Amino acid sequence: xxSGVFGDTVSESVSVMEGDSVTLHxxxxxxxxxxxxxxxxxxxxxxxxxxxLYDGEDGRFRDRLKVDYETGSLNIxxxxxxxxxxxxxxxxxxxxxxxxxxxNRSPKCNSTKIYKKNINPEDIIITFNLTxSGVFGDTxxxxxxxVLEGDSVTLxxxxxxxxxxxxxxxxxxxxxxxxxxxxxxxxLYDGEGGRFRDRLKVDYETGSLxxTNITTEHAGRYEADxxxxxxxxxxxxxxxxxxxxxxILNIADSTEQFTVTVSDPGLSSAAVAGISAGGVGVVVLVAxxxxxxxxxxxxxxxxxxxx
Length: 307
Hints:
Elements: E1 9-17, E2 22-24, E3 36-39, E4 43-45, E5 52-53, E6 65-67, E7 74-76, E8 85-92, H1 99-104, E9 124-133, E10 142-148, E11 153-155, E12 166-171, E13 174-180, E14 185-188, E15 200-202, E16 209-211, E17 220-227, E18 254-263, H2 269-306
């Protein structure tokens, strides 16, 4: 049996790596006869004959769900980042407004159908905040980006808004941008010496960062710390764009790294080659002139000796 009374809400945070399996435990020893576990939108558990596992939105849970019919716990196999989010298990009593009986009489399981959540406030709710860390955030991979001075550059995260809640951008371990889509807050920092003032833009869908009118002082290492499910209240504490903050350590679920090189547009490779060739030409001309002067000198000495 579960500890607690009906009307209670229990919450738990769970983290897993992409590709692994995870079990969301209800902490029940057994589901009493006539009771039902309703995993909102993805599973309805009573017994093997009357239960149903749903594919979910876009079929993201198809062939990935398993259940323990004794405890009502839910297992998700081969997890991906799109499985990150909040899961709710509703323990429905047999006498809960006749809801359990109507569920038990369901004639068949339509796994492709998407049902809306309908929770009775008298039932016990067990909530899980699941975070799946993806391989795309491997910090061993550093993307190299080259740009000409005066141009704009966008550092692409490759994310969509369902894959993160917070993104923190850092330049050489100094914070330059923070976007918390959960509360709709954004802060763009000026950086050391104000080098990024009025130069930064953030894409609200992907979290990608654009630097406009770039100069050589913007060359360096950029990191996007990606937080899929915010676990810290008050992470965003107001925007003070002129303040200089260091990188927050050990907070990201994954990190994207970029090395940006900024070149002077006035010195193209052809120009550099021309300068080099011109320098070689000058050296050759000087050498020829010196050789000619030596030959003339020796000829004059030879003529004077013959006289």
